[in-house]
Amino acid sequence: MHIQTSPVEVFYWSTPNGRKITVLLEELAVPYTVDFVDIGKREQWTPEFSAVSPNHQIPAIRDPEGPGGNPISVFESGAILLYLARKFGRFYPDSDERRRVAVEEWLMWQMGSFGPFLGQAHHFNLAAADEIPYAIDRYAAIARRLYAVLEERLTRREFVAIDAYTIADIAIFCWVARHERHRIALADYPAVRAWFERVAARPAVARGMAVIKAGHDDRPRLNPARATAPSTAASS
Ligand SMILES: N[C@@H](CCC(=O)N[C@@H](CS)C(=O)NCC(=O)O)C(=O)O
User: Fold this and answer.
1) 37 lines ligand 1 (CB under 6 A)
2) Which pLDDT score is estimated for 231?
3) Structural domain of residue 113, as residue ranges?
4) CA distances from residue 131 to 49, 121, 217, 226, 234 in whole angstroms, order as listed
5) Is ligand 1 within 6 A of the CB of residue 39?
6) Ligand 1 pocket check: which of 17, 50, 76, 81 to mutate, most ligand atoms within 8 Å of Cβ?
7) Which residues have CB under 8 Å from 165's CB, separation 6+?
8) Model's pTM, two decimal places?
9) 76 within ligand 1 shell (Cβ under 6 A)
10) At 152, is the secondary structure helix, strand, or coil?
C-alpha cells in the first residue's frame, strides 16, 4: 500500500459531497490539507479552483503523489472516492469483480439519484426564495421513494453494497446525514437509521464530518425571503 508523505490538497466546503472526501481521507489516515471554497460567496469561480474543477463545483483534490509519482488533480466526488480507494487499496474490493460491481452500482446510485434529487428536495424545502408547493411535493415524493429503496436494501444487511463498509456507504451516509433537510424522519426507515447510527459511530466519520470553516454556520435554515416554513417538519 502507498504511504503518503505529502498531504492531499482538498478543495472543500462542508456539504454532503465535500464531506465524502474528508471522511474517506480520515478513514484512510492519509494526511490532507483543506482549501475552503465558500460556494455561498461564489469562490468556485476563481481561476485557481477552476483549474482543478472545470465544472466549478466542490469537491476536488490535488494529489502531489499521483500516478508515476507525479501530481494529479481529480474532480467529481465519485471519481475522487474511487481514485483514493484504489490508490490505498481499502473500502473498495480489489479482486472480486462481483463485489466491485456491487460497490459501483450503489456509488453510482448515490451519484445519479440519491444526491441530485435530495439536493433538489433541500433546495425547494429551504433554499428557494419562493415556496413552490408543486416542487416541494414532487421532490418530497422522490425523496421518500429513494429512502424506501435504501430501506429495502439495508433490511437484513449491515452495509449497503457488500458485507463490508465501503466507499458506497460513505457516499450515501453523507447525504442521509441531512435527512431533516429532505423532510425525512429516520424513524420511518428503521434499517436506514440502524445503519446510519453504525456508520456515524466510526471515529473517522465523526472527524471527517466535523471539517468546517471557522465561523461558518452549517445549521439548516429557511431562506429569509420565505414568509412561512414548510408545512411539515421532519424529526427523528
Ligand atoms: N456531481 C458532483 C456534484 C458536486 C456539487 O453538487 N457540489 C456543490 C456542493 S455539494 C457545489 O459545488 N455547488 C456550487 C455550485 O454549483 O455553484 C460531485 O459529486 O462532485
Assistant:
1) no
2) 53
3) 97-202
4) 33, 12, 23, 7, 17
5) yes
6) 17
7) 91, 159, 199, 202
8) 0.95
9) yes
10) helix
Nearest to 15 by CA among 223, 214, 229, 211: 211
Q: How far is the CA of 138 from the centre of ligand 1 (A)?
A: 21
Q: What is the predicted pLDDT for the residue at 1?
A: 75
**Partner residues linked to 63 by β-bridges:** 72
Return the CATH number at 115.
1.20.1050.10
Cβ of 58 below 6 Å from ligand 1: yes
- Domain presence at residue 135: yes
The amino acid present at 123, given as its one-letter code, is H
Residues of the chain with confidence (pLDDT) below 70: 227-236
Distance 182 CA to ligand 1 centre (A): 17
> For the chain, how many structural domains are there in total?
1
> If you take atom 1 of ligand 1, which residue's CA is the nearest one?
76
Q: Which set of grid coordinates corresponds to residue 75?
A: 474532480
Q: Which atom of ligand 1 is nearest to the CA of 16?
A: 10
pLDDT (0 to 100) of residue 236 = 41
- Is residue 156 in a domain? yes
pLDDT tens readout for residues 111-154: 999 999 999 999 999 999 999 999 999 999 999 999 999 999 99
Instruction: Tell whether ligand 1 has an atom less than 6 A from the beta carbon of residue 125.
Output: no
pLDDT per position as a tens digit, 28-37: 999 999 999 9
Tell me whether residue 207 is in a domain: no
In a domain, 119, yes or no: yes
Ligand 1: nearest atom to the Cα of 57: 12
